[in-house]
Amino acid sequence: MSDTIVFIPAWNEEENLPAVLDDLERELPGADVLVVDDGSTDRTAEVARGHGAEVISFGTNRGLPAGIAAGWGYAVDQGYAFCGRVDADGQHPAAELARLLQRVRAGTCDVAVGSRFASDASLAEYRYKPTAARRFGTAVLRRSMKVALDKPFLDSTSGMYAANAKALPVLAQPYTSEAPEVQAILRLHEAGLRVDEVPVEMRARASGESKLQGRKGVMVVLTIAGTLLALDRWRRR
């Protein structure tokens, strides 16, 4: 058993999953891999097992918040020292996750989050071109997160994570939001853990469509922003 596990929440991702698993094997050959199959109606679970991954399968589709909590919870239950997360749609290069895990292993932070919007000397600030709806949602979330955290956080919905054992129980708690990544960042902040937002390259989705887009995506963002602002007002009473 490795000291590191990478989990992948997946719902009907049989087309994209093989490339994601091959990428992890190539870049992180020593890590264990878990696929959380969220009630898929295709061959997602079969494909995962065929590539040597452990699989947790839900009987029905329970949604991303449940899948993420299950992944972090498995890492806690099995006693892993480090855990990474990537999505099943091919957007998250395993080489970038490896960089995040190195940062956590070095003790620089408790959690490293891969950011499409943060920049450094090698990655330009505007390398990622979102749609108009996503630009609106991102702007609202940035302002809300800055209020809630008292500091900027540019990509609070990123699904690329690396975490140490101290952070895993916090991340494994059940999620009540349709944007569990945002809720996770708030929890980590409340727990006094260090979260680094790290510039990374991300790819376009390999195939299929995002499960959260258009009007639904905008409504989720507005709901989250309202919740964050209400929380901030409550704290300041």
Please describe the topology of this protein.
Elements: E1 4-10, H1 17-27, E2 32-37, H2 44-50, E3 54-57, H3 64-77, E4 82-85, H4 94-105, E5 111-115, H5 132-149, E6 161-164, H6 168-171, H7 180-190, E7 195-199, H8 214-235
Parallel strand pairs: 1-2, 1-4, 2-3, 5-7
Antiparallel strand pairs: 4-6, 5-6
Account of the protein in words:
The chain is α/β, with parallel strands linked by helices. Helix content is 42%, strand content 15%. It contains 8 helices and 7 strands. A 7-stranded mixed beta sheet has the order 3-2-1-4-6-5-7, sandwiched between helices. Helix 2 (44-50) links the parallel strand 2 (32-37) and strand 3. Helix 5 packs parallel to helix 8. It is globular, with a radius of gyration of 17 Å. The model is unreliable at 229-237 (pLDDT under 50).
